[in-house]
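Reviewers of the previous submission asked for a worked example of the structure-prediction workflow described in the proposal, so we include one complete record here. The input consisted solely of the amino acid sequence. No template or homolog information was supplied to the procedure at any stage.
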Amino acid sequence: MKYIPYPYQEYATKWIIDKEKAGLLMEMGLGKTVCTLTAINELLYDYFDVVRVLVIAPLRVAQSTWDEEAAKWDHLKHLKISKVLGTEKERIDALNTKADIYIINRENVKWLVDLYKTNWPFDMVVIDELSSFKSHKAKRFKALRKVRPLIKRIVGLTGTPAPNGLIDLWPQIYLLDGGERLGKTITGFREKYFLPDKRNREIIFSYKPKDGAKEAIYKKLSDICVSMKAKDYLDLPERLDNIITVHLDDKAKGQYRKLEKDLLLPLKDADIVANTAAVLTNKLLQLSNGAVYDENKDVKEIHDAKLKALEDVIEAASGKPVLVFYSYKHDLKRIKDHLKNKILRELKSAKDIEDWNKGNIEVLLAHPASAGHGLNLQTGGNIIVWFGLTFSLELYSQANARLHRQGQKETVIIHHLIANDTIDEDVMKVLKDKEATQEALLKAVKARINRVV
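From that input alone, the workflow returned the following structure tokens.
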């Protein structure tokens, strides 16, 4: 197929070529893979600026997306791609295969760095989903940090650079510039731009930006990071977000309050124990959905209010397909049991995607972590239901984009089942706050294409 790039795609490719360290904050559907491959091709064979390229990606993307994209376009078909996946022997064989681009899943980055140490052979590295390197404590970040001085060119690709707030930016930008813009250490970054927010004596749980910090950070990033939002360049469908308030009965409400207050909910055969704030949060989320794991890891059903609300949404859809995102395994089982008379499927394979897009599935059940990257579901339906929410803006945004993307012919309706006066309401607020922070960042480094193209 002949590649005829849009102006924004030409801009993105030129951004990568012109900068040895480049952050491309590009939303899904804009073609970041073909833009990056085009830049790689030119750097390899027109500019002779790089010799060996490494792409680090989520496993599913590493398995299929990059080589399929290269094979699709005439100007990229000559690129030789070797996938460094599978067993250790298979990975080593792939590394010993002569190629232009080597693709590895992010879980094996530490293994790769340990294998080569100072004999690092890749002069260009592309990190697909840079935001997966947002933790400075993660092994993958620490490993890549070691070899960063040996990398000539680096590109970070993501649509959600600050999924949990601006504090997430330091590790990602460090991998791009070695600490030149936001400092050499996370401690220095925090001290310069943030103040402690939530804390328990000496233990600090979160940070908030100092006055003027956001603008200062945005300015620091503007010369290496550029953002492109799908709504600015694509004909996206309208999106309607709907909150469906779910009321718990008095018994369930009392059990919720007791667990919230006492960190303990005694039941007939076992107890629900939450001995830390993190465990309590998790238990309250489960209870809001209707069931919770007890101390013996058995499932205890508390209420069926959300199941009934979900059934109402599906009935109101009048036969139109519905994509349901669940949080826990017991959510999945309870939904399957409750909707046993519906044509439903759990998203597991390419066949499930094919059947959904053909309209053969009435209810498709998916965990947001398994439906985040590279899945095109927009031709199968336009209705999403969040049975249980996630605190992760990245997972939330990526999951919604399975239907809200180019090619969708109808208005996308996103229903959120929110248990009244529970942690569900807090999660919804957190997601909105994170979206506001993300939107401000993307706007601050927005591509001004009209001034260039």
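The chain has two domains: 7-233, 239-248+304-424. We consider this example representative of the routine output the project will generate in years two and three.
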